[in-house]
User: Which sequence fits this backbone?
């Protein structure tokens, strides 16, 4: 892992660790984050979310998840965001945050066996 990447991962962990709204088990296990990544939010992804929301292919519960994502991301188009997954046993939490503002934009608890939010 490159030094810059390691610094960004450490920053991600610090932001998550300081977030009182996250479940305690997430903060306690953030040092084992996996899938850490930084990517630009692209208009094509936001358009995809809008399309999926309109189509509702997986029903109303999934549509709510997509609406929450879109609302959280729409003001960050063209900006780099960080994401990662924190797990404990069967529990998984996907987190997306802004390294610039040091704020968590959204998080989702997931059941990776069913590929559904819990």
Assistant:
């Amino acid at each position: 892992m490159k030094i810059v990447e390691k610094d960004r991962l450490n920053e991600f962990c610090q932001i998550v660790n300081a977030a009182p709204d996250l479940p305690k088990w997430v903060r306690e296990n953030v040092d084992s984050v996996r899938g850490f990544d930084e990517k630009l939010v692209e208009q094509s992804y936001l358009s995809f979310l809008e399309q999926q929301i309109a189509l509702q292919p997986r029903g109303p519960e999934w549509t709510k998840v997509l609406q929450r994502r879109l609302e959280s991301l729409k003001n960050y188009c063209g900006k780099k965001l960080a994401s990662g997954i924190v797990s404990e046993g069967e529990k998984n939490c996907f987190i997306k945050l802004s390294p610039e503002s040091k704020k968590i934009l959204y998080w989702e608890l997931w059941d990776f066996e069913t590929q559904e939010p819990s």
Observations:
- The chain has four helices and five strands.
- Residues 3-17 form the longest helix (15 residues).
